[in-house]
Amino acid sequence: MKEVKIESTFKVYEGFSELPDDIQHLMQSAIETRENAYAPYSKFKVGAAILLDNNEVVVGSNQENASYPSGLCAERTAIYYAGAKYPTAKILKMALTASSQNQITDSPIPPCGACRQAISEYEIKQDKPIEIYFMGATGKVVKSNSLANLLPLGFDRSFL
Ligand code: THU
């Protein structure tokens, strides 16, 4: 038996205004898109903006359903659309923001496990890390250089 230690490193920005200009721009798209969320059940709106290597920005927001599991997170709405519309483009960066109507969302909101798995698929497919920035409605912004940092011991195509 041996013990294995897996470490991840993240950058934490004090707030939106500390982000580099291009990331502020991408995050602003995510913030605007967040307002298009259809979240009548959770009252939790999420916005995602994806920058592709063809310079296009693809956005998505969470879309809920009275049959709860039929809804979809913002990240997957955006990344599946990017894959559908620009199948050969590489995903460079993702900006994520979430805002609850029930409480102040001032801590960074990371993508859920299912979205990590979905983003991981594209990161592996394109063989290039995806930078991920996530925040609440206000407050600190976390940057991960790669999805892999957020999903240790992930399941991927190599097992199939
Ligand atoms: N949600 C996202 O859009 N992304 C996540 O990573 C976490 C959760 C959405 C799904 C649902 O509409 C609401 O937030 C509450 O879970």
Draw up the topology in text.
Layout: E1 11-13, H1 21-34, E2 44-52, E3 57-61, H2 74-85, E4 91-100, H3 113-126, E5 131-135, E6 141-144
Parallel strand pairs: 4-5
Antiparallel strand pairs: 1-6, 2-3, 2-4, 5-6
Helix pairs in contact: 2-3
What can you tell me about this protein's structure?
With 160 residues, this protein is an alpha+beta fold. It has a single domain (11-138), classed as Cytidine Deaminase, domain 2 (3-Layer(aba) Sandwich), CATH 3.40.140.10. The chain is 25% helix and 22% strand. The protein is built from three helices and six strands; from the N terminus they run βαββαβαββ. The chain has helices at 21-34, 74-85, 113-126; strands at residues 11-13, 44-52, 57-61, 91-100, 131-135, 141-144. The longest helix is centred in the N-terminal third of the chain and has 14 residues, at 21-34. 34% of the residues are buried. Bound molecules: tetrahydrodeoxyuridine.
What is the number of strand segments?
6
Name of the CATH superfamily: Cytidine Deaminase, domain 2
**CATH topology, which one?**
Cytidine Deaminase, domain 2
Q: Per CATH, which architecture?
A: 3-Layer(aba) Sandwich
For the record, give the distance between the C-alpha atoms at the N and C termini, rounded to a whole number. Answer: 27 Å
Low-confidence stretches: none
Mean pLDDT: 98
Bound heterogens, unique: tetrahydrodeoxyuridine
Count helical runs: 3
Helicity range of the residues?
Answer: 25-40%
Overall shape: it is globular
Radius of gyration: 16 Å
**CATH class membership:** Alpha Beta
